[in-house]
Amino acid sequence: MSTSIPANVPGDVHTALMKAGILEDPYYRYNDVKYSWVGYSDWIYSTTFTGRILHCKGTLRILS
After folding, report:
1. d(CA 26, CA 2)
2. Rounded to whole angstroms, how far apart are CA atoms 4 and 12?
């Protein structure tokens, strides 16, 4: 299954899933057990940059 939801960095997966309405409070009653799948899943954060790219001595710099 693959889905895309907004997330904040710094932040965590549980909070992003709660804000998206996918999880209820993981600390309420036995929700930590109910949502244990979150810890066993792989998560990818991604973003998009626009601007000129300058590569200088092993450092990638994005100029807006």
Report:
1. 21
2. 15
